[in-house]
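User: quick one, fold this
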Amino acid sequence: MIPAITPSTPRDIVRPGTPEALAAALVEASEERVAVTPQGGGVLMGLGHPPDRLFKVVDTRALNRVLEYSPDDMTATVEAGVTLAEFQRTVAAHGQQVGLESPFPHRATIGGILSTAVAGPHRGALGLPRDQVIG
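Assistant:
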């Protein structure tokens, strides 16, 4: 489902399941010279200045794997479509928690949280989302 962020319907919606498929979709969009709008859980798609037209929407929800997690180092590598709730479950199994917040953790994706810089009431103690990212 694409939230109604513009009065137009996207010409194309792609749902890549691998980084390679995402790269191919972006190369295709570049070759076609069309704008790309990324989408994860669609929680905060209405923030900011909405696009005038939607050409290609890249839905990142299938890119939803925790690729690497080192509890001892407290570092993880995750794909953009991992939900905050799923990431919290992963680290909670080791007595840890992720320092990110969202009003809809079961829908909000890590990519969306980082791209919108959404921060909850604990931002004073936790910092902003970018403060949680090493690189």
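User: anything notable?
Assistant: The CA atoms of residues 15 and 21 lie 9 Å apart.
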